[in-house]
Amino acid sequence: MNVDTPLLVTFIVYIVATTLIGFIAYRATRNLSDYILGGRRLGSFVTAMSAGASDMSGWLLMGLPGAVFLSGLSESWIAIGLIIGAWFNWLLVAGRLRVHTEFCGNAQTLPDYLTNRFEDKSRILRILSALVILIFFTIYCSSGMVAGARLFESTFGLSYNTALWIGAFATITYVFIGGFLAVSWTDTVQATLMIFALLITPVFAILAIGDLPSALSMIKNEAPGKLDMFKGLDFTAIISLLGWGLGYFGQPHILVRFMAADSVRSIPRARRISMTWMILCLAGAVATGFFGISYFSSNPSLAAGVMQNNEAVFMELTKILFNPWIAGIILSAIMAAVMSTLSCQLLVCSSALTEDFYRAFLRPKASQTELVWIGRMMVMLISIIAIVIAFNPDNKVLSLVAYAWAGFGAAFGPVILLSLIWKRMTRNGAFAGIFVGAATIILWKTCLDHLGIYEIIPGFLFGTIAIIITSLLGKSPSDTMKAQFEKADRTYHSEV
Q1: Average of per-residue pLDDT across 281-292
Q2: Tens-digit pLDDT profile for residues 52-111
Q3: Share of the chain above pLDDT 90, in %
Q4: C-alpha span between 465 and 449 (Å, rounded)
Q5: Alpha-carbon dihedral of residues 39, 332, 76, 443, nearest 10 degrees?
Q6: Backbone dihedral angles phi then psi of residue 42, each to the nearest 5 degrees
Q7: Three-class SS state of 478
C-alpha cells in the first residue's frame, strides 16, 4: 500500500463525516434563527468546543509550533496573552451578551444587537458594523482557503488550484446545508481532533529522543537561547504579544457562540471546558515546536522539510513519528483547524448579508424558509469571492489578514464590552468607537508600524476613549434604553 493511500482514506472519511453532520443539521434547521444561531439551544460542551475551534485556526498547528521551533520559548508570550484574553472574554462578555441580545429584540447578529441596544432608527450602526464584518471576513475566509489548499498541496502533491477547490468544497458543503448547527457540531469533532493531535505529537517526539531530561539537555547544548522566554524581547515587545488577548472582545465568530448558548447558566461550565481545552492546545502547540528543536537536532538527515519551512514542523513530525494511518488522522487536525474557523467566518458573513441587509432593507416580511435559503446563497457568494482572492495567494492578501484580528478587536471590542457594562453609552458613542478603532488599526499599520507596538493596543485604547467622550458629550440615552439595559443586567446577575 502506498503511504499516501492511508492519508487519502482518512482525509476522505473526515470530509464525508463533516458533510454527513451537515445533512443531519439540515433536518434540524427550521428557521433563520436555527440557521445562524442554532435556535439558541447549544449546551455547555458544544458552546465551549465550538468557541474554541472557531478561534484556533491553522496557525495553532502550523504558525505557533513553527515560530517556537525557529525562535524558542520567547514566542510563547502570545499564547499567554491569548489565554488571559479568552478567560476575561468568557468572564465579562459571554453571559452578559447572551442575556442582552435576547432582551434587544432577540438579536441574532452583532449589527442586529447594536441596532436594538442603542435604538438606532437610522440603522447607521447596522450598516457600519456589517461592512466591517464583510470586509475583514471576506479576506479572512480567503486566507483559510489558502491554508487548506497548502495542506492538500503538500500532503498529496496536488496542484495549488486543485487543492484550493477541494478544501473550499469540503467546508462550503456542510455550512451551506446545515448552517450554525452543522458548524457547531463539526467544531466539536474538530476541537477533539485538534487537542488529540497536539497532545500526542510532543509526547512521541520526546519518546523518540529518549526522555524529557535528554530532550531539554539537547536544546540547552545546541540552542541555549531558545530556553530563554525573554530572548530578544523588550517591554514593548512583550506588551505587544500579550496585547493579542484584547482581540477576543471583538471577534464576531467567537461572540456569536456566546449568543447561541441555551442559557446563561451554561456559561460558567462552558468557560471551564473551553479554557481547559485552550490551555492544553496552546501548551501542546508550544511543546511541539520546542521539542521539534531537539528531535531534528538529533536527526539532521530528516530535517530538510523544516529547514525549508519552519511552519511544517508539526506535519514533518507527524509523518516521521506515526504510521500512515495515525498520521492521516493527526494531519486531518490541520484541516479541522482550518475548516472550523473558515466555516464560522462564512456563516457570520452570510448572517450579516441576510439579517442586516436583505431582511433589514429589502425584504422585512420575508418568510423563514426564504431567509434560510438566502443565507445559503450568501454563503456561496462569500465563498466565491474568497476563492477568487485565494487564487492569487500572495503576501498582499496574507498581510491584510495578519491584522484582521486587530481590526475586529479594536472596532468591536470596546463597543461590545462597554455596551454590556455601561448604561450611559450612546449610539453616537458606539459609532465613534467602531470607526475610530478600525481607522486606528489601518493608519497605525500603514504609518506607525515602525514603532514596534502591536496596533490593537492603540486601536483598542483610542476606540474606548472615543466611546466615552462621545457618549458623555452627547444627549443621555432614553429612559426606555436605560430601562432595557437595567432589566437585562438584573436578569444576568440573577441567573449567574
Answers
A1: 92
A2: 777 776 677 777 888 888 888 888 898 999 999 999 999 999 999 999 999 998 888 888
A3: 28
A4: 21
A5: -60
A6: -80, 130
A7: coil
Q: Is 361 exposed, middle or buried (0-12, 13-18, 19+ CB in 10 A)?
A: exposed
Q: CA dist 351 to 37, 42, 307, 322, 356, Å?
A: 9, 18, 42, 41, 7
Locate cell 489548499: which residue? 149
* DSSP-derived secondary structure for 394-439: -HHHHHHHHTHHHHHHHHHHHHHHHHHH-TT--HHHHHHHHHHHHH
- Assigned architecture for domain 4-401: Up-down Bundle (1.20)
On whether the pTM is more than 0.70, the answer is: yes
**Cα 393 from Cα 424, distance rounded (Å):** 45
**Residue range 223-252, pLDDT digits in tens:** 788 888 888 788 888 898 888 899 999 988
Reading the block at residue 243, the C-alpha cell is 496585547
pLDDT of residue 443: 92
Half-sphere exposure of 372 (CA within 13 A, CB side): 21
Q: Grid coordinates 437610522 are at which residue?
A: 122
Neighbour tally for 447: CB within 10 Å? 9
Residue 104 CA from chain centroid, whole number: 25
Q: In angstroms, rounded to a whole number, what is the distance separating the alpha carbons of residues 185 and 262? A: 15
**What is the full DSSP assignment across 260-285?**
TBS-GGGHHHHHHHHHHHHHHHHHHH
Which one-letter DSSP state was computed for residue 474?
Answer: S
Angle at alpha carbon of residue 175, lines to 23 and 385, rounded to 5°: 145
Please state the φ and ψ torsions of residue 475, each to the nearest 5 degrees. Answer: -65, 140
